Amino acid sequence: MSTDARVTVATIEADATIPGIRFVRDFEATPEQLFRAHTDRDLFLRWNGPNDMDTDIQVWDARTGGEWRYVTRDDRGEYGFHGCFHEVRTDRIVQTFTYDGFPDGVALETITFTDLGDGRTRLEALSLCDSFEGRDMMLASGMEVGVHDGYAKLDGLLADGSI
Amino acid sequence: MSTDARVTVATIEADATIPGIRFVRDFEATPEQLFRAHTDRDLFLRWNGPNDMDTDIQVWDARTGGEWRYVTRDDRGEYGFHGCFHEVRTDRIVQTFTYDGFPDGVALETITFTDLGDGRTRLEALSLCDSFEGRDMMLASGMEVGVHDGYAKLDGLLADGSI
């Protein structure tokens, strides 16, 4: 199997024309496994976010029209996030996202899972903000640490049969 | 009272830099009245949409993290819409919006109510789409009829003391 085109480290890029951030990452997984990793409360808890933070999920109703809320904690403090699930279907999740520390900022996130064949699935996500300033703040927030750490933990859960 | 600057017919304009549509409309109302018009199920039913259509609200949970779904009907057919309420607070409502006939299209709507003094309140809304094509389709959909008709009905409810 050629691995030349494999995206094992997430690409995180500003869209050229809309105020969004695009993410691409391949996993050794089926679309159904990635769907479960994003919708099963206990699985999500085990991979989401940076390595040095604990997550406490307070609300989790991963269905079309549902809602979510969690808090992450490290030595420096506590960071809350919340949103609603606009659509939850096996190949696509659309949800809103707000960091409590910037309560008027809202991103609309669309995550898709595409079967690449040979056991791999490509995750593509768009975080759409309502201004380029908000998008650039999100890009500068250090969130890539949580993305890379989280997906590496997800790789581990897939490899050890947890999902 | 000068009425020179009063926006009695909604302005509906494409944003110059992001794939959004901006709406502005003034009402003889308090922010609290406009908030109720947008969150109370029975009131919303009485003003939303074009004059020649009936609305049937199927799901209505107007709170942060809640969801909504309604169907409008006319002689030609039935049109379903749904979304979730990301945030519901007295001066601002953030919600998602999808037309069932175009299920992969999602708009993130932010509606704010600003007290202008002298009994008037300005409604400002942004419908943010994930592409300029989607935004332009929404602009070309004829939705301005529903906006203008709906706000005129809302004027009537405010004038007759229903709200």
Q: Can you characterise this structure?
A:
2 copies of one chain form a homodimer. With 163 residues, chain A is α+β, with helices and mostly antiparallel strands. Chain A has a single domain, classed as START domain (Alpha-D-Glucose-1,6-Bisphosphate, Chain A, domain 4, 2-Layer Sandwich), CATH 3.30.530.20. Chain A contains 4 helices and 8 strands, in the order E-E-H-H-E-E-E-E-E-E-H-H. The first copy, chain A, has helices at 31-39, 41-47, 132-139, 143-159; strands spanning 11-14, 20-28, 54-60, 67-74, 77-89, 92-99, 107-117, 120-128. An 8-stranded antiparallel beta sheet of chain A has the order 1-2-8-7-6-5-4-3. In chain A, strand 5 and strand 6 (92-99) form a beta hairpin. In chain A, helix 1 (31-39) packs across helix 2. The radius of gyration of chain A is 15 Å and the shape is globular. The relative contact order of chain A is 0.22. Chains A, B: Belongs to the AHA1 family. Chains A, B: Residues 29-158 form the Activator of Hsp90 ATPase homologue 1/2-like C-terminal domain. Chains A, B: This is SRPBCC family protein.
Topology diagram in text:
The structure is a homodimer of 163-residue chains.
Chain A: E1 11-14, E2 20-28, H1 31-39, H2 41-47, E3 54-60, E4 67-74, E5 77-89, E6 92-99, E7 107-117, E8 120-128, H3 132-139, H4 143-159
Antiparallel strand pairs in A: 1-2, 2-8, 3-4, 4-5, 5-6, 6-7, 7-8
Helix pairs in contact in A: 1-2
